[in-house]
Amino acid sequence: MSEYIDESTYPEPLLTEAPPGQPVPQDDPPDPTYNLVARVLHWLMAVLIVAMLFLGAALIGTIGNYGVLLSIHRTVGLTILVLALIRIANRLLRRAPAPPAALPRLERMAATASELTLYVLFILQPLLGWALVSASGIPVRILNGLQLPAIAPENARLYAGLHLAHTWLAYLLLALFTAHMCAVLWHATALRDGLLRRMLWPRRPR
Which of 107, 130, 148, 150 has the most neighbouring CB atoms within 10 Å? Predict the structure, then answer.
């Protein structure tokens, strides 16, 4: 006795190949660059940090324009603090592109440690500067005359300690920033592994 099989009850087989004349659909490759917000913040903060380093050096060797330079220094420092917080939030929300596959594991670990240290300094240095001005008893004013609240009590010994910490962390920031620049130039000119392209604007296809 033969049984009748209703083929309509069985699902249609999935197509594993594209119809003739049409390309096989593929997943989009991962974006090799950082997102736009990350790229803009990266280069903007790089310019501001270089400016801060020059301002810090100028503050040591100048007398006549000390007040103006100090006001600019505070304003740029506060701007870096705000941008760093935005950058960290963006980094937590948007995943960074994968590093080049040829990058050794030890170098990846060193780059991650350096990046985390830089983020800490981007936040800690402006806060230390804000605190040391507060400890000096001088009103914390930025370039447009806005007075910020004091975040540390007025105390001479506290001021001296904060000033020393702020100075040494500035040297550390300079060293890390220089090492970062040297590493980027090495990858861009000698290795040419595409590491720098992750932070550049992607080229439009012709």
Answer: 130
With b meaning 16 or more CB within 10 Å and e meaning fewer, what string describes 121-136? bbebbbbbbbbbbbbb
Q: Which amino acid is at 74?
A: R
Instruction: Specify the CATH number for the domain of residue 158.
Output: 1.20.950
The per-residue pLDDT for 129 is 93
CA neighbours within 13 Å on the CB side: how many for 77?
27
pLDDT for 23 equals: 53
Residues 6+ apart with CB under 8 A from 124: 169
> pTM of the full predicted structure?
0.77
Position 66, amino acid:
Y
Measured between alpha carbons, how far is 143 from 58 in angstroms, rounded to an integer? 17
Decide if 38 contacts 91 (C-beta within 8 A). Answer: yes
In a domain, 199, yes or no: no
